[in-house]
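Work Package 3 committed the consortium to producing structural models of liganded targets before the mid-term review. Because experimental data for this complex are still outstanding, the team generated a predictive model from sequence and the ligand definition alone, so that downstream docking and mutagenesis planning could proceed in parallel. The input record is reproduced below exactly as it was submitted to the modelling pipeline, together with the SMILES string for adenosine-5'-triphosphate.
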Amino acid sequence: MASMDVDNLTKYYGDERGIEGLTFTVEPGEVFGLLGPDGAGKTTTIRTLMGLQAPSQGRASVLNYDIRHRRERIAMKQDVGYLPSEPSFDGSRTGKQLLAYHASLKDDERSERLLELFALDSHLNRPIRTYTPEQKRLLATVVAFMHDPALVILDEPTVGLDPSTQEQLRTFLDIERQRDTTLVVGSCSLTTACLLCDRVGILRNGHLIDFRTNQQLPDRAPWNIRFVTTDPVDANAFPSEHSYNVEIDRTDGQLSDEHDGRPPRTAVSFVYTGTYETLLEALSTYTIRDLIIEKAALREFLTQWYGTRLGNGGGVDV
Ligand SMILES: Nc1ncnc2c1ncn2[C@@H]1O[C@H](COP(=O)(O)OP(=O)(O)OP(=O)(O)O)[C@@H](O)[C@H]1O
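The resulting structure, written out as tokens with the ligand in place, is given here.
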């Protein structure tokens, strides 16, 4: 039996569409990602699945609890873990008081171990308002997992964490996966999806437009590369199976100032999905005056995959 069974789930806020017609299942022990850019509908889906807001249409069962019925929602919350995207706490309570409260609602199998793992154990007697934002998120993670639930729903679990803590959290979630905990992860990070999820549903403008297994995702998130060079650049130098959206700008007046005697400059930008070594090799053939390398936004990548309009018959704008 599926751990989550969602059928035509729809949520409108007045006239504003949150999500529409979502249908998917999540198998026991699966790590399923809801991958989408800002505003795609991840939080709406997750809050509706957690019974925090009623669906406008459709139905969903989470661990076989029907979220449309109040009694079942209450029972579900004892068996399911939930990490909200923006956890909010009563800041005057200590971490210890918060955990005692949650233990009274849903049991506590392992908060001590988790607190130690996330280095929160020495902060327990302090009011939560004195915690750093990162410590608050980790405390919320402890709350989500303390009762050792069979299924945990996480909304943007790595947002607001520094890179090393993100890595620590991913390692923890990977261990949970090996323990057969079912995870449903809302994320706008392709890196999180690639590293963590067995399968993702791609959300765009409130619609689930595709499903991809981990093998159908790239090895890692693509990079936006932009460099400025004083050398001539061949228009065909970068298009390859690893580079796309290549733009070569020789006409930018700010860059090619021929009056001060400096050679004209060319700005080159592209999205890159290949290996670091191949990139560095290609860049090393130019005299580089400026270089910016940053992770590409998911929205750009989805446009690359699916174009600017959806072909689902719904005619939904991007
Ligand atoms: N309380 C609300 N009232 C009206 N519209 C809302 C409300 N919450 C969400 N929406 C709308 O629903 C759509 C989906 O938003 P949602 O927050 O679920 O997306 P998201 O993928 O979680 O993005 P983000 O990461 O930015 O929260 C958006 O168009 C948003 O404007």
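Reviewers should note the following from the model. Residues 310-318 have pLDDT under 50 and may be disordered. These observations will guide the Year 2 experiments.
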